[in-house]
Amino acid sequence: MTRLVALLIGLLTVIPPTWADEPQIVEIEVTGMTCPFCVYGTEKKLNRLPGVEQAQVSLKNKKARIVMKPGESADLAAIRRAIVDSGFSPGKAAVQPPKAEK
Amino acid sequence: MIQEKALLAGLAMVVLAADVSAMGIRSFVALPLEEGGTVLRLFGQRNRDQNLNVLTSNLAYGVSARQTLFLGLPYRLSSGEGDRLGDLSALYRYTAWQVDNLEGTSRLGLLGGTILPTDSDRDVRLQVGAVATFFRRRHEWDLDALWVEGLGKARDRARYDIAWQYRLTPAEHPVWGIGDEWDLDLELGGRWERGSDMVHQATLGLQSIHKRWVLEGAVVQDVNGPRDTQYILSTRFHF
């Protein structure tokens, strides 16, 4: 029994919990878009950023949702720049889970 | 009569050559093209009254979010006098002012460029103008004006366009992703060349807008002057 408990404790310390692998997700306000062409151009720019798994844009809610690859951290400055390069204006951003303090 | 037709054909070619990435069918627009983005447009116009068919190939390239380059080259499909290949229009747009908000966008762009003859018998023209766009919810208004200064033997020209587009469907876009939409397009435009009266034209059109392409058709009716009726069929692809 003691061995089993020790083994479980050992496994837990070696294998990180699953939530540690959850990808970081950024939701950011994007204003100025008017039509599917605008959405396409913005998604194209965001999807080309390093570390991005998938970027989607909501014309209805004027938002972009950027899912990062596991282990990759979002570069908010690069995301904002990509939105500006698409011809639109970035606004408030929320990162889930929040970036760890360095 | 033949000279008048040739004049109108030439005017139509130059005017059409300037249209590229507008969301209005005939007007310029200040809506952006992303940096590095390209739009290819094939624009066919039939003038039933003059039996004139013109296909214009246009290319728009986003130099940056605020700077766009437009190229246009018309080709006359129908038989007639003069060269089939029209002159190359090169136009640069700089978005000088832009205010975005949750309701839409307001933009003002400045236009400048040239029309380069593809035949040594014709002279260069210079073009300068402005374009404004206002977008709110389901409505878009585009206004543009262009002065074309003829050098040498080339005559001066001018044009204006006022366009209103209304999104028919969907009433609301999907929460995520890119949905298709249908827009109604109403326009009033004017075309002028030195020595002639301004011809005002009303346009009624329909646009089917998708993620990477647009298909649009319209009827253009002269309000004064020759009173011609023209038909437009156009498609654009976004790369």
Key descriptive features of the protein:
heterodimer, A: 102 residues, alpha+beta, 3 helices, elongated, B: 239 residues, mainly beta, 1 helix, 7% helix, 58% strand
Overall, the morphology of chain B is globular
The unreliable regions of chain A are none
* Spatial order of strands in the largest sheet of chain B: 1-2-3-4-5-6-7-8-9-10-11-12
What structural category do the secondary elements of chain A indicate? alpha+beta
Number of strands of chain A: 4
**Main beta-sheet strand count, sense and barrel state of chain B:** 12 strands, antiparallel, barrel
Distance between the termini of chain A: 40 Å
| Helix/strand structural class of chain B | mainly beta
Query: What is the overall number of helices of chain A?
Result: 3
Give the largest interface: A-B, 29 and 37 residues
Approximate shape of chain A: elongated
The share of residues in extended strands of chain B comes to over 45%
Alpha carbon gyration radius of chain A = 18 Å
How many strand units of chain B?
12
What topology emerges from the helices and strands here?
The complex is a heterodimer of chains A (102) and B (239).
Chain A: H1 2-14, E1 25-31, H2 36-47, E2 52-58, E3 63-68, H3 76-85, E4 89-96
Antiparallel strand pairs in A: 1-3, 1-4, 2-3
Chain B: H1 2-18, E1 38-47, E2 52-62, E3 67-76, E4 88-101, E5 104-116, E6 125-136, E7 139-150, E8 157-169, E9 181-193, E10 199-209, E11 213-222, E12 229-238
Antiparallel strand pairs in B: 1-2, 1-12, 2-3, 3-4, 4-5, 5-6, 6-7, 7-8, 8-9, 9-10, 10-11, 11-12
